[in-house]
Structures are given as C-alpha cells and as structure tokens.
Design brief:
It contains 5 helices and 45 strands. By secondary structure, it is mainly beta. It folds into 2 domains: 100 residues, Immunoglobulins (Immunoglobulin-like), CATH 2.60.40; 623 residues, TonB-dependent receptor, beta-barrel domain (Maltoporin, Chain A), CATH 2.40.170.20. Strand 5 and strand 6 form a beta hairpin. It is globular and about 100 Å long.
C-alpha cells in the first residue's frame, strides 16, 4: 500500500513538472480488433533521457490524453488479457495517435491465482461479489440479481420463494414496488455495483427486520446519468415507462435523484362466476372486469455527506402517487325462484394512493471500529377508494390515511475483531384514520422496541443471538411481547463454501389497521366486502431452520413454523351472494418448507440459478382444517454472447396452492424470454416476451363452501412484449484504483473462480 502511495506521489510530481513546461499533448483511443473501446487500459510515457514516467488510464470510451515536453519517449499500453503495445515517439508537436489496436493475449497467466469467491456465506446470509464478474458489467441490475443464489425477480423480488421484505441501495431503503421498483433498479448496471449483501437471517437489531437485499455501489469520485424508456404491450395492455436517475459524488459529498413514470392502459378482462343456492333457487352471477392503471409516478431526491472521516450524514425525501380504475359489468341469472334478482348493471371502482416519505441518518464511527447510528423516518400513506354504480343505487367512498414517525438508535460495539454487541431502541408513533361514507375512526399506534444482540464469527463457529421487546398500544389496546432469536453456524470448510447452519427465532405478528377496522370496505357491490375485527390480538410464531451450503453453489434447507391463535382470513357469502372477508384470531398454523437452490457460473458466459421449494401448510379454525401441498420452482439462465449480446430465459411455476383458508389458486408454468444488445459503452437495447405459453389466460382462483362456489379466470391473452432503450453516461474521475480494480476483474474472469 505504501509503495502504491509513493508511486502515485512521484507520478503526480512528475506530471506537475512536465505541465509547467511548454507541454505538448499525446492523445488516442484504445480499441480491440473489432474497433470496440477498451476502457481503463494503462498508458505510460517514459522519457528516454531522464527515465521519468508519467501515466494515465483510458476512459470509459477508450480515449486518453497525456501532456509532455519536447523529447524522445516510449509509449506503452497494457491491459490484462491483451498483448502489450509499445511505440517510440519523437515528440516535437501535438501527437494525435488515433486508434491504438491491442491484440488479445493467448498466453496463460500461470503465475496469477485468484482465490476470492463469487459467493461468500456468513452468519446472516451471503455476499455476492459482483465486482469480480466482468460478464455482468453492462447488464441491468435485475439481471445481476437473478444471477445471485435464490433470488427471483418478477412481479415481486423473492428469496428462496419468499418475498424480500426490504431493499437497500447503500444505506437508504428503497420505498417502491412493482414496475417502479424494477425500473429504478435497472437504472444501475453491473459496473455500478461493488457487491450485493443478502440477509436471509437478519440480526434482531435490524432497523426494519425481515429479509433484505443491500446493494453496495462503487464509491467513485464521479457521476453517472441513467435514462431509459420501456414500452410493453400485448393483446391486453400497453405500458409506457420512462425513467431518469442521476448520481454524483465529489469528495465527501454525494447527490442522487430519480424520477419514474408509468402509464398503463390495461384492458385485460377478468371473468368471475359465482353460484349459490337460496332455498330451491340456484343463482349465478357473471362479472366481467376491465382494469386500467392510467398513472403511477415516483420521485426521490437525497444526499450524503461525510462530515469527517468518522461522521456520516444523509437525508432523503420521496413521493409516489398511483391511480387505478376498474370498469365492471355484472349479470345475474337465477332459476327456481320467482322474483329473484336478475338483470345486469355497470359499476366503476376508482383508487388513488399517495405516499410521501423522508429519512435522516447520522452515524459516527469510534476509534475501536464501534459505531453509533441515529435514524429518523416519516412515512405517509393516503388512500382513497370510490365505488359507484351506473344507476346511482350504490355508492361508497372510503379513505385510509396514515402518518408514521419513527426514531431509531443503535450502538454497535466491535471487540477482538470477532465479537460484536448491538444495543438500541426504536420508537414509533402512527396516526391512522379510517373514513367511510358515514363514519370516521381514528387509531393511534405507539410502539417502543428496545433490543440487545450479540454475534461471534470465528474460524469454525458463527453465533448470533438477541432479544427484542415489543411494548405497543393500538387504539387504546395494549400489546406487550418479548421475542428471542439464536442462530449457530458451523464452517466445515470456508474456502470450499461448506457451511452448516441452524436457527431458532420467535416472531411477533400484529393485526393491521385494515384487519381491525370494523367499517365495511367495498371493492364492489356483489362480490367482495371486507370487514375488520377490532377484537383481534397479536400472536407469536416459533420458527426453526436447518440449512447446508456446499461449494458456494448449492443450498439445502428445512424450515418449520408453528403458531397458535394466529390471525387468519375467513371468506363467507350471505344469502344474496355477497362475499365477505373478515379475520379471526383462533387459527392454528404450522408450515414445513424444504428448499433446494443451485447457482452455477459456467464457462464465464452462462449463469444458471435454479430454485425448488416444497411447502406443506396446515391451518385449523374451529375444528375445520385446511391442508396445502405446494411445489414451486424457478429457473433463471443468463447467457453472455459475443458482440455485446445477452440472452435471458426465465421459467417458473408450481402446483395448486391455498391462498386463504377456503380459497385455492392454480399456478401455471410461466416462460419469459429476453435478448439484449449493448450497442456502445452508453447505449443498450433489449426485447422481452412475457408468458410465452399464455399461461395466465387460464389462471384461476376457486372458493368452495358447499352451497357457494366462486371461480375467477382471465378471458384474454396474457402474452406481452417489451422493448427497452437505456442510456448510461459516466463522467468525472474514476478514482486512482479503478484501473487496478478493472484489471483484477478481468483477471478473475479469465482464470475463473
């Protein structure tokens, strides 16, 4: 390290001395045999008389510029994977050299050994070292995530089949989902990412708890601008999705902003058939829905500032808004009963959601590597739902408004390099308003959560344990709980990636405001009405897991969860066919989950991520039981081809599953396909086909309750096509270590890992 610093200072001094003279310029562009730019190649200029050397690094477009006084020089260009280029120069005037061609090296680099693993497991999950994979450099971040063990990116981002609770970019939490989330993530390319931290077993001191993905970007004194536009269409919908992202870092200051806009015209029709008996009459109802999502917009502005070597400050504000509209046609038929309801009518359902948020983070690192973190959050949620029939016979307006303020403090003590102790407290105040046409309910929620955790990471043993208390009041009702957790990891062979892990944790489950709101919330007239239960109580679940990792490529786990007095959704019809959903607190649940995952990286060109999940679940309510056996699988492959092409294939599906106590849903086979082309260092286009087999056309949900049967299915094609154009521009200093890092990545790629 000292040698590098001394070398840098000498080069800097020599550059300054040359610049002080009547300097001339030497410029050029480093390219390969296909005339493509070679970025971050090392260029050195040696004075033949004085033997002094000045150097630089080629930029992202392969260009370089050097300044020197008149004289005789030797120019050398080097890059891992290419033969060295040497040129004698008699510099008497400015010398534009044009394109300098580097030939690929066919020699074997026997003296170099790279031992770093692409995937490194730890006591809380694993780290995915993206910076080592040159082939992922130009692909979008969602493709990078798909190549990580157990991660599936679709409508939701899942880990081993379970939804990811939290996603972070550096220290900031991303408050998006759906199209907005994937659009935002795709503003980053593999070259922007240092590593991805996957937290499958979170420490009890984690701010938001639950599983998490932390995306760590490269800290360069530079800026990058990303912009893309996506158009997706098919028989049923057209989606337009322009977005913009700007990141800039200068010294201790970093700034970022993003804007995402989605316009969707969705004419997909959903057909719902309901049949029930009323005495001697058999009644049926056919409902046809046409969905529209005219607008979704999101914007974020934030900054971070290193107040000192040990003090960090960041602030962020964001705002999102969504509008959704559903047009509905309902036809009633009946037999056997005179004067029973018949005919048809038209209705509409309009929903508006607005979500402002703000976050302030301060941290201080102590000399012993301990750290104090303070966080303040505000999150608002304003939702309006309007339901009206064409004839005006039924009208319903509901609003749910939430303002949440949270303060979080955590002190992390590190000692003897292997031990860490976390202690802290979190306090939240949430104001909830549930407003319907004829009533208004206000629920204030206050919660204090002190916590304590300890972890040890040895050569053979990893240990994590902790305790968190929950002291809460919701609508004047008290909820007090304390939950422990503990995990033990045995590193059979760290180098080969053989790890055995067992874990136990207790989780607290609280009723949401919508679950305890007694006001009827209409989503339509005759199909669905939700009524909350104000008598619901919190409950705890006990969770056990045992997992084995092998060769940093294979993972096998078994998980068991059990809960008494769990909150369960109960769906039931009345004698007119209206469908109600409510919630009960007397369910007994147990789940058994088996997971197998393999993540392979073959020939430096092909990544394969396969995941198989088996779930057995059982739920008992008042003597009635519901059992569920579900097998889900996903297969994601990404193939890098010459000339900047890449091909991505995604398969996922499963068997029939229970989605609520008495409702089942078929899970057909989905196949998605993508081909992408990196045109230049800045431009990339891609073409996608979603649901090639048109599987979602036959997707259905069924509710069977004796005299009442309901089936939901789609009428129109679900095949969709997407075309995307992305622009990624970088400027500013790349950092003195970027050349070294780039060469190391190239070396890793050529030798394999």
């Amino acid at each position: 390290m000292r040698l590098h610093i001394i070398t840098f200072l000498l080069l800097f001094a020599f550059t300054a001395s040359l610049h002080a003279q009547n300097s001339l310029t030497i410029s050029g562009r480093i390219v390969d045999k296909e005339k493509k730019a070679i970025e971050f190649a090392s260029i050195s200029l040696s004075n033949n008389a004085t033997k002094k050397i000045v150097g630089t690094t080629a930029s992202a477009d392969g260009t370089f510029l050097l300044k020197a006084a008149k004289g005789e020089y030797t120019l050398e260009v080097s890059m891992i994977g290419y033969d060295k280029y040497t040129l004698a120069l008699n510099l008497q005037e400015d010398s534009p050299l044009g394109d300098i061609l580097l030939a690929e090296s066919h020699g074997r680099l026997k003296e170099v050994r790279v031992t770093a693993n692409r995937v490194e497991y730890n006591i809380n999950g694993y780290e995915y070292n993206v910076g080592q994979l040159q082939s992922l450099k130009k692909v979008e971040l969602t493709e990078v995530l798909r190549s990580a063990p157990g991660i599936m990116v679709g409508d939701k981002i899942t880990l081993y089949g379970a939804p990811i609770t939290n996603i972070y970019v550096d220290r900031r939490r991303v408050r998006m989902d759906g199209h907005d989330l994937t659009s935002y993530l795709n503003m980053f390319k593999g070259e922007n990412i240092e590593r991805i931290e996957v937290i499958s077993d979170p420490d009890i001191s984690e701010r938001y708890g639950g599983t998490a993905i932390r995306i760590i970007t490269k800290k360069e004194e530079a800026g990058f601008l990303s912009a893309s536009a996506r158009v997706m269409g098919g028989e049923s919908k057209i989606v337009t999705n322009p977005n913009f992202n700007l990141n800039y870092r200068k010294g201790a200051f970093a700034f970022y902003t993003s804007a995402i806009y989605t316009f969707m015209r969705n004419t997909n029709e959903q057909e719902l058939l309901s049949e029930w008996k009323d005495g001697s009459a058999t009644k049926s109802q056919i409902t046809t829905d046409k969905f529209k999502l005219p607008l979704s917009a999101q914007g974020t502005v934030g900054f971070s500032y290193d107040l000192s070597k040990n003090d960090y400050l960041s602030a962020e504000v964001s705002y999102s808004e969504m509008h959704r509209k559903t047009e509905r046609e309902i036809v009633f038929e009946n037999t056997g009963a005179a004067g029973a309801l018949s005919g048809s009518y038209h209705s509409s359902f309009d929903a508006v959601s607005k979500k402002p948020a703000a976050t302030l983070i301060y941290s201080h690192k102590f000399k012993d590597a301990s750290e104090l973190t303070l966080t303040a959050d505000y999150v608002g949620s304003y939702n309006s739902n309007q339901y009206n029939t064409e004839d005006g016979s039924i009208g319903s307006n509901t609003e749910n408004n939430t303002s949440a303020f949270t303060g979080y403090s955590k002190y992390s003590k590190r000692f003897k390099k292997r031990h860490s102790l976390n202690v802290g407290i979190q306090y939240s105040y949430i104001n909830n308003e549930a407003i319907s046409t004829d009533s208004k309910l206000v629920y204030d929620e206050k919660e204090t959560k002190p916590f304590l955790s300890y972890s040890f990471n040895g050569n053979k043993i990893g240990l994590s344990t902790g305790l968190r208390a929950y002291l809460a009041s919701i609508g004047g009702k008290s909820f007090n709980d304390a939950v422990p957790n503990a995990s033990l990891s045995y590193y059979i062979d760290r180098r080969k990636g053989h790890i055995l892990r067992t874990e136990y944790y207790m989780a607290v489950h609280r009723p949401s405001i919508s679950q305890i709101n007694p006001n009827a919330v209409f989503s339509d007239r005759e199909i669905y009405i939700m009524v909350g239960n104000p008598d619901l109580d919190s409950y705890t679940s006990n969770n056990f897991s045992l997992s084995m990792n092998m060769f940093n490529k294979f993972m096998l786990s078994a998980n068991y969860s059990r809960a008494d007095k769990a909150i369960s959704s109960l769906i039931y019809p009345d004698d007119k066919g209206k469908l109600y959903q409510t919630f009960v607190n007397n369910a007994k649940k147990q789940d058994v989950t088996l997971v197998f995952n393999t993540n392979l990286y073959l020939w430096n060109k092909l990544s394969v991520n396969a995941n198989f999940t088996y779930l057995y679940s059982e739920e008992r309510i008042e003597g009635e039981s519901s059992r569920n056996n579900v097998l889900n699988f996903s297969l994601v492959s990404n193939l890098m081809l010459p000339k900047g092409y890449s091909v991505n294939l995604i398969l996922y599906g499963g068997t029939k599953k229970v989605v609520s106590y008495n409702a089942t849903q078929k899970e057909p086979l989905y196949i998605n396909f993508q081909v992408a082309k990196t045109i230049t260092q800045r431009w990339r286009i891609s073409f996608n086909v979603f649901d090639i087999l048109n599987s979602n056309r036959s997707r259905s949900t069924s509710i069977d309750m004796g005299d009442y049967i309901q089936k939901v299915s789609y009428k129109k094609s679900s095949i969709n096509f997407q075309c995307s154009v992305a622009y990624n521009f970088r400027w500013g200093k790349m950092g003195a270590n970027r050349r070294i890092e780039s060469q190391k990545n190239e070396m890793t790629t050529r030798l394999g890992n």
